[in-house]
Amino acid sequence: MSINQTTTGQVRGPAIQVQGLAKSYQELRVLRGVTFDVARGSVFALLGSNGAGKTTVVRILSTLLKPDAGTASVIGFDVARQAAKVRESISLTGQFAAVDEILSGRENLVLIARLRHLRDPGRIADDLLARFSLTDAANRRVSTYSGGMRRRLDIAMSLIGNPPVIFLDEPTTGLDPQARLEVWQAVRELARQGTTVLLTTQYLDEAEQLADRIAILHRGRIIADGTLSELKQLLPPAKVEYVEKQPTLEEVFLAIVGAEGTDSTVAAASPDGPKELQ
Ligand SMILES: Nc1ncnc2c1ncn2[C@@H]1O[C@H](COP(=O)(O)OP(=O)(O)O)[C@@H](O)[C@H]1O
Ligand SMILES: [Mg+2]
Predict the structure, then answer these.
(1) Residue 168 has pLDDT above 80, yes or no
(2) Which protein residues touch ligand 1 with a CB less than 6 Å away?
(3) pTM of the full predicted structure?
(4) Which is the closest atom of ligand 1 to the Cα of 57?
(5) Any one Gene Ontology biological process term (predicted)?
(6) For the segment 247-266, what is each residue's pLDDT rounded down to a tens digit?
(7) DSSP for 91-146, written as a single string
(8) Which of 18, 51, 165, 193 is most buried when burial is the number of CB atoms within 10 A of its CB?
């Protein structure tokens, strides 16, 4: 499903624009004025600890939830007033893979292509299986897939119909290190094809590895937003030491959040596991 950009006049401007979003659940003020833009064809990471409000932002952008205040648009379509147009332009891959276990990987893909009334579902399935390195496993039941294979299949399924914008909500949470690397490859593949990707993550290294631009959501607001090198410049000038070391995003995060005197800390989740915001 491609957007006819010449007739809609949506050709310019960012892929996603978010301005002053606020959302509360009863007394809990989750979003308190969230503002950011995502450039077309870029990978944007919304980084925040558990409960920061990342899924709430994604649900608003994918028209599943109404904000209390603020505006948001996707490919120029307003999420409140043009929800159907927004839904045609996006795909959403949630934290928990939505694939059918009984079917094979290929059958899952063919099913979705049929449901979307696309021509030649078999060819679409085979192309996606090849792009996400699932050809060898194409005819096996999904119940035999590893976590990384499932998540890759999930991402492949969300690409059927070529949505220009894809939301990946914590694509690697709960995966082992090898599976995370496989999913990272899949995200890079999306970027290579020019899809705009907004991903949420609580992993600093994931944002550092994948994103062109990173926004840190903390206490309901975006407290930092920039490229990795821009975020690194927020640190005091590097000390001259015998061995020069580039600051990691983790150090940038600590410098920003730690400076507020919060109880947030960054800890290694496990000796070999990814670093996670607590
Ligand atoms: N439907 C809901 N009702 C009440 N509280 C909610 C609801 N959805 C989320 N929350 C709360 O809002 C906060 C932000 O949630 P969420 O957006 O899921 O954060 P994240 O995805 O960053 O972990 C959390 O404290 C969560 O418990
Ligand atoms: Mg979430």
Answers:
(1) yes
(2) 25, 28, 30, 48, 50-56
(3) 0.82
(4) 17
(5) response to antibiotic
(6) 888 888 888 887 665 444 44
(7) EEE-SS----SSSBHHHHHHHHHHHTT-S-HHHHHHHHHHHTT-STTTTSBGGGS-
(8) 18
